[in-house]
């Protein structure tokens, strides 16, 4: 057994039945040698992830061990890569003999490009078998997010939204009230108050760049709304040169001029940024729905900010913008299966993402589930607030750097940092993104 965390799995005497495997093999279009009356040969299923919270990985380990106990011929092996290494190495891995059987996906243009290379398994047949019982077990929007040309290329796993988390004690010290931050101008005023009180306003991860693109993305959404972004993405109208998008860049530049981030933020990776927030080194962080556990994991003392000292608020609106307060930016994450993966990989994913196991993960504070009915298990107040925000979302937009594809996504991340630091004008940034999109 070669798990990243945890003990070797328990082994049970249940068999992986011939009837079940035959149906699965037919649904996935893969051949599988079956032997009646004899135990199946050991099959290794390689699971590539980037999760850094040990408690979350332990939940996965427990689920994997339970599955293995019921399927003694299967060995689920968790393999880890850090976020940036994951993005850098995955394209090569997918073309190698050492490709994982399934891996974490943000969907969007990146997944679409992977599907076009032939590296991924078309899951439509497997998920539509038995009158679509499997595919119908998920939020329809989640399935749609992983579907290209009527073919499903990933199993939905979780939904998420990016919002601000804040340190209540530091807000109180500066006389800032989160409930008063409704507009972008309110937000900039809060930054100024925090600085005046000797508090670093925001923990920023400029080393990885993508954490800073959230600011630009949200400002584009708040200024232009869905219509402007969709037109730009589809190379229609004025594209990324639309005045609303250029205005978003100007507002990002205004934030940069206030120098709101911690010293050395341009060299800080995401793990370090979470640690700075968890250590009380900054009052705010623009982050994911599971920030409460993430900041605790990366804090120097392993404890981070106490739950009662953490608050959350949505990204503010902008005056005169076409976006709605109920428009959200965030993830739609799933598990993509590689072309040569064994049928057991698909079967395990069905098991991992069923209602019962999604409830277990939701109760642990890991995710906002996509399995219908599993959301009832969310108990953490901050996670519940994120789930409620998503439930009321009028437009849920995938991360720009994922939705626009890897090449354009890299430019978006670069441009966001350049505009924020004053090294590039908003017009130049929009032009660079426009040009990159035109080259695809």
TrEMBL record:
Q: State the UniProt keywords alphabetically.
A: Periplasm, Signal
Q: Which domain of life is it from?
A: Bacteria
Q: Where is the signal peptide?
A: 1-40
- To which species is this protein native? Phyllobacterium leguminum
Subcellular localization is given as: Periplasm
Query: What's this protein's family per the entry?
Result: Belongs to the bacterial solute-binding protein 1 family.
Read off the Pfam families from this record: SBP_bac_1
Looking at the keywords, is Cell inner membrane present?
no
Q: What is this protein called?
A: Carbohydrate ABC transporter substrate-binding protein (CUT1 family)
**What's in the GO CC field?**
periplasmic space
* Record keyword Oxidoreductase present: no
Q: Which InterPro entries match?
A: Bact_solute-bd_prot1, SBP
């Amino acid at each position: 057994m070669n798990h990243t965390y945890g003990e070797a799995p328990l082994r049970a005497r249940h068999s992986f039945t011939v009837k079940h495997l035959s149906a699965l093999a037919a649904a996935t279009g893969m051949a599988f040698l079956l032997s009646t009356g004899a135990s199946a040969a050991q099959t290794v299923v390689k699971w590539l992830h980037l999760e850094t919270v040990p408690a979350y990985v332990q939940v996965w380990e427990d689920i994997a061990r339970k599955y293995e106990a019921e399927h003694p011929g299967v060995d689920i092996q968790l393999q880890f890569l850090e976020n940036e290494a994951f993005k850098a190495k995955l394209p090569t891995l997918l073309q190698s003999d050492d490709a994982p059987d399934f891996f974490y996906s943000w969907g969007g243009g990146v997944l679409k490009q992977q599907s076009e290379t032939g590296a991924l398994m078309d899951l439509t047949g497997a998920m539509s078998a038995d009158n679509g019982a499997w595919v119908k077990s998920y939020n329809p929007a989640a399935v749609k997010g992983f579907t290209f040309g009527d073919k499903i290329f990933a199993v939905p796993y979780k939904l998420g939204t990016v919002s601000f988390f804040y340190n209540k004690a530091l807000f109180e010290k500066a006389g800032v009230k989160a409930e008063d931050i409704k507009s972008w101008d309110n937000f900039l005023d809060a930054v100024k108050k925090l600085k005046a009180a000797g508090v670093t306003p925001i923990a920023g991860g400029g080393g990885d760049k993508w954490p800073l693109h959230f600011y630009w993305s949200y400002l584009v959404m708040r200024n232009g709304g869905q219509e402007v972004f969709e037109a730009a993405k589809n190379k229609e109208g004025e594209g990324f040169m639309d005045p609303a998008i250029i205005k978003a860049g100007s507002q990002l530049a205004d934030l940069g001029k206030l120098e709101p981030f911690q010293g050395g933020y341009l060299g800080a990776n995401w793990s370090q940024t979470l640690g700075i927030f968890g250590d009380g080194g900054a009052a705010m962080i623009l982050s994911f729905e599971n920030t409460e556990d993430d900041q605790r994991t990366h804090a120097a003392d392993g404890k981070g900010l106490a739950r009662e000292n953490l608050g959350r608020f949505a990204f503010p609106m902008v005056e005169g913008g076409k976006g709605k307060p109920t428009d959200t930016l965030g993830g739609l994450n799933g598990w993509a299966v590689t072309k040569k993966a064994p049928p057991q990989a698909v079967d395990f994913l069905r098991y991992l993402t069923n209602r019962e196991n999604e409830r277990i993960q939701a109760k642990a504070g890991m995710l906002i589930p996509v399995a219908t009915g599993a959301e009832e298990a969310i108990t953490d107040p901050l996670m519940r607030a994120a789930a409620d925000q998503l439930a009321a979302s009028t437009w849920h937009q995938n991360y720009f750097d994922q939705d626009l594809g890897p090449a354009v996504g890299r430019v978006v991340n670069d441009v966001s940092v350049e505009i924020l630091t004053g090294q590039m004008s908003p017009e130049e940034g929009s032009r660079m993104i426009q040009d990159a999109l035109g080259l695809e």
